[in-house]
Amino acid sequence: MPSQPSKTLETFDNPQPERDYTIRIEVPEFTCLCPKTGQPDFAELTIEYIADKLCVELKSLKMYAWSFRDEGAFHEAVTNQILTDLVNATQPRFMRLTANFNVRGGIYTTVVAEHRAENWQPPVPVTLP
Predict the structure, then answer these.
(1) Is 13 noted as a catalytic residue in this protein?
(2) pLDDT in tens, 45-55
């Protein structure tokens, strides 16, 4: 098999570091294992961030997400671990990770975790009539 899961997140230079703009990435096939039962948990991850100097490279993100397939983790723990790893790799101005887990035992779980760089202020939204 040519590709293997990896915990390495690669980056590239932000092509417009002078501008605040939103990058939105959807990872629809995230899987990990329930730490209690060992059964698979499925989730859709949505990553939204405002880059500073670096952006995350998408193939490495795919291999990174794949690396959780055989790991047991509570939804809250895995969501926060992924956010921490992404923030450590890219040092963004802002990042939000939303993990929407599929139903398990009649219960849906959504975990939202955020990071804001120190001294970063979000721009004022523009409202058009």
Answers:
(1) no
(2) 999 999 999 99
